[in-house]
Amino acid sequence: MSLIAAKVPEIELENVEMRYQTDTAEVLALHQVSLDIAKGEFVSLLGPSGCGKTTLLRLMADLIEPTGGRVTVAGKSAKEARLAQKYGIVFQSPVLYDWRKVKDNITLPLELMGVKKARRDEKALELLELVGLKGFADKYPWQLSGGMQQRVAIARALSMEPEILLMDEPFSALDEFTRERLNEELLSVWSKVGNTVVFVTHSIPESIFLSDRVFVLSPHPGRLSAVVDIPLPRPRTAEMRNSPEFFDLIAGIRDSFEGV
Ligand SMILES: Nc1ncnc2c1ncn2[C@@H]1O[C@H](COP(=O)(O)OP(=O)(O)OP(=O)(O)O)[C@@H](O)[C@H]1O
Structurally, what CATH architecture does the domain formed by 9-86+164-256 represent? Predict the structure, then answer.
């Protein structure tokens, strides 16, 4: 790879603005957001409800188009990146098909691409092992807990080997214990896959535990108020959540909210 190519950010937003038009009003959801995310980086978008986190994620995924500014992915437009299937997306609720076995939920995107069944089954087993669900291939989603269902959704998002994994509050509906365990498991998956992850959350500890950098957003209008480096070493461990460094980072991010 040339030096220039190495410097191209994976995701780049320049002065992005998003206005929604409703029947009665216009909502300025994002105002002049500029940020860069490096290839292989794990970042979080953190902020209170309504600050535009989901909007930002949807813009990166080309599910919506900005009303101003530019979104560039690996040097191309977000639309080109979407067409090149660079994205895997995980939503807050796992959106699984109850009548399909776990393995067939995971490989649905491959099926839609016309990949043969033998190869799909092989890939499903690989992914199930990756997300810690070995042995659940022939179960149905309704036979699994909420946390296990979300792992199936993660496996499905990874089935097309996306360069970028976009995650919109994937663990927010889960209890605290399950959520913390899934945070650790997600990092273990990411360390093996090595893709770029953009993770939306309104939990300060979750954003710190997972990320290389945290983008802090503020509401009315949604804008980037701080970018916080997380210098905790990797691999991250459960004990780190009780370290003085972790509490200092929480306090620092809280202060960055108070400053807006
Ligand atoms: N389709 C839409 N039409 C009109 N307004 C919208 C639309 N989608 C989002 N908004 C508004 O844009 C702002 C940002 O919404 P967004 O969902 O991106 O925030 P968020 O930070 O993800 O919130 P939450 O944490 O509650 O999911 C909010 O004021 C919201 O009401």
Answer: 3-Layer(aba) Sandwich (3.40)
d(CA 38, CA 257): 25
Alpha carbon of residue 256 to chain centroid: 22
Q: Which of 206, 207, 223, 226 shows the shortest CA–CA distance to 215? A: 226
Q: Which atom of ligand 1 is nearest to the CA of 22?
A: 4
What whole-number distance in Å separates Cα of residue 97 and Cα of residue 141?
7
Q: How far is Cα 148 from Cα 144, in angstroms, rounded to an integer? A: 6
Look up residue 188 and give its DSSP letter: H
| pTM more than 0.90 | yes
Peptide bond into 221 cis (omega under 30): yes
ipTM summary value: 0.97
Which of 17, 18, 20 for mutating ligand 1's site (highest number of atoms within 8 Å of CB)?
A: 20
